[in-house]
Each structure stands twice: as C-alpha cells, then as structure tokens.
Write a structure and sequence with these properties.
mainly alpha; 2 domains; single chain
C-alpha cells in the first residue's frame, strides 16, 4: 500500500513512506506475535517456525485445517471495502462527488445491518 501511495510522492517521500510503513508493520507484527504466543502457546510457536514472516511461501508450510469456510462472514467482512470501492467508482463514472456522499453512508448502513444480522444468526 505504501508503495502505491508513494508513487504520488517525491523520490525521498517514496522512500520515507515505504520505510515508515515497513517499520510500522514490523512493530505491529511483533506485537501481534507476542499476544498470540501468550494466548495460543506452543502451537503458535511451531506455526511461526514453519511460516515466513514477511514473504509468502511458494508451497504450503502447514497442513490445511478441517474447518469449512464461512462465506457469509467473509462477504460481510469484506463488504465495507467493496462499498467504498463502489462509491469511488460511482464518483469516477458520474464525476459528481455528491454521488459518493450519498452512496457511501447508505453502503455503510447496509454493511452495518448485514453484519448485525449475521451476528444475530450466530448467537441463536
């Protein structure tokens, strides 16, 4: 993300954005790993040994789990990003920022109602 935004900056700004983002993400990963080690224990420690920290592995490093994906949760979780993207697309097509100012709050409300409904179904 920083590299994508950094393209809009000067050369030194690009380097600063990428390095600052890398430092931030590295510290965030360290903090999350510390928390997960406390809650998950040795199983998470084994996972950390098997999986690279920053770069994706070309081959699976851990066996797949037995759980089936919960597509409702996945769609609800990503709906906010899609709503934002659709609002931006609407602005690009119509060239009217007011369209996004209307679409984004309506989309946010829809996202909130969808996630709330899913949470209610899970608690039943």
């Amino acid at each position: 993300m920083a590299a994508g935004i950094g393209v809009l900056a000067s050369r030194s700004g690009f380097i600063f954005l990428v390095l600052a983002n890398w430092i931030f993400v590295y510290r965030l990963i360290s903090r999350e790993e510390e928390s997960l080690l406390k809650t998950q224990g040795e199983s998470y420690r084994a996972y950390c040994r098997a999986v690279p920290r920053f770069w994706p592995a070309l081959k699976p490093r851990v066996p797949s789990g037995n759980l089936r994906p919960d597509w409702g949760q996945a769609i609800a979780g990503e709906s906010f990003v899609w709503i934002f993207g659709l609002a931006e697309l609407l602005v690009a097509i119509t060239l009217r920022p007011l369209a996004a100012l209307i679409a984004f709050p309506l989309g946010f409300l829809a996202h909130f109602l969808i996630t709330r409904q899913i949470q209610k179904q899970r608690s039943v």
